[in-house]
Amino acid sequence: QVQLVESGGGSVQAGESLRLSCVASGIRSRFSMNTMGWYRQAPGKQRELVADISSGGSINYADSVVGRFTISRDNTKNTAYLQMDSLKPEDTGVYYCNADFVGYVDGGVPAAFRSWGQGAQVTVSL
């Protein structure tokens, strides 16, 4: 079973930086990892997309993080990163890594699935 392991969360003051990492393991040989992304859920709010990046390098950012956050990936390491600079208190929340997979099961039947990390707490104080 695919596992996504996140690291790099913590507590910082406004204006400081953090970098989150997400490592995928246990990928079946007949499946490949497509888009990887980061979502967050702030206290009292719905989960929202922060950024995602396709296998080809296309990137989307939430308007609130443009110019401050940078998403990247290393396909040779099955790893995605989220560099977070100039952090603000409103960035506080639980950050979840996700990855989409496409491939084939027995009989050559196309299949797809999504996997999620356990979440990493990010707390930004004044």
Name the poorly predicted regions: none
Tally of DSSP helical segments:
0
Number of strands: 11
- Alpha carbon gyration radius: 15 Å
Largest sheet: 7 strands, mixed
Shape: elongated
- Tell me the span between the first and last alpha carbons: 40 Å
Secondary-structure element order, as H and E?
EEEEEEEEEEE
What share of residues is helical?
Answer: under 10%
Mean pLDDT metric = 96
Structural class estimated from helices and strands: mainly beta
Beta-strand residue fraction: over 45%
SSE arrangement:
Layout: E1 3-7, E2 10-13, E3 18-25, E4 31-41, E5 48-53, E6 59-61, E7 69-74, E8 79-84, E9 93-105, E10 109-116, E11 120-125
Parallel strand pairs: 2-11
Antiparallel strand pairs: 1-3, 3-8, 4-5, 4-9, 5-6, 7-8, 9-10, 9-11
How would you characterize this protein structure?
Strands 2, 4, 5, 6, 9, 10 and 11 form a seven-stranded mixed sheet that branches. The chain is elongated, with a radius of gyration of 15 Å. 0% of the residues lie in helices and 60% in strands. With 126 residues, the protein is mainly beta.
